[in-house]
């Protein structure tokens, strides 16, 4: 079974858990650590001869086009993570479309490649924001990876009513709940054997999808006083991410979302 491995390319200060303290208008005041983080991830993937999907924030692409270009030159897939890292629930349909198109134009201009994949900031495509799928389809997106399957939501890869392929975050049933054990920070927060076991269970029927943020490998990033709960969400076990990523790449086969879904098929 070939699984999909994905990275959300964001600065440490763009994480949702820090949004109450660091506003969009203040982003440019903070120390940038994105280059060293992305290049460290690329080095790990290169050594393991593994291709991945990088969901790149448009703000990052605009400020650091060389990062996007180098990711693409190494054969990885470039997909959209929107421009401003703003949850869909906080945008009107018009604002969402503008944000999407701006990110897609930036990524396409840098790489010369069509962008066919999308991941919403903060996994904010829910039952209340399914309208966004029509906007994605209308603008050339072929697959979405923005849902965390909770109660009564499909857990497997499926085609939506809007004609998109949805590749949700992988979950396992535990104590009557769908638990993501290879995404949303779970890889670094939980013991590695738990993640390995979860992917093994998923692989009995389906490919799994692993998700990491680029800032999750950075144990030296600046600390912000965001309260105990958010501090655990954001800072806990950062030093374990790279070792666990290496174990994953040793124990399972991975590729980009595009290759897992479409193989060698040309996508127009």
Description:
The protein has 268 residues and is an alpha/beta fold. The chain has one domain: Alpha-Beta Barrel (TIM Barrel). 36% of the residues lie in helices and 14% in strands. The chain contains 10 helices and 11 strands. The chain has helices spanning 34-47, 58-63, 65-73, 93-111, 131-138, 186-189, 192-202, 228-235, 241-251, 257-262, and strands at 2-9, 53-56, 77-80, 117-118, 143-144, 158-159, 165-166, 172-174, 177-179, 209-213, 253-255. Strands 1, 2, 3, 10 and 11 form a 5-stranded parallel sheet that branches. A 4-stranded mixed sheet has the order 4-5-7-6, with helices on one face. Strand 4, helix 5 and strand 5 form a beta-alpha-beta unit. Helix 4 packs parallel to helix 5 (131-138). The radius of gyration is 17 Å and the shape is globular. The mean pLDDT is 94.
Roughly how many Å is the radius of gyration? Answer: 17 Å
Mean pLDDT: 94
Strand content: 5-15%
- The total strand number stands at 11
For the report, how would you describe the main beta sheet? 5 strands, parallel
Q: Fill in the CATH topology.
A: TIM Barrel
Can you tell me the CATH class? Alpha Beta
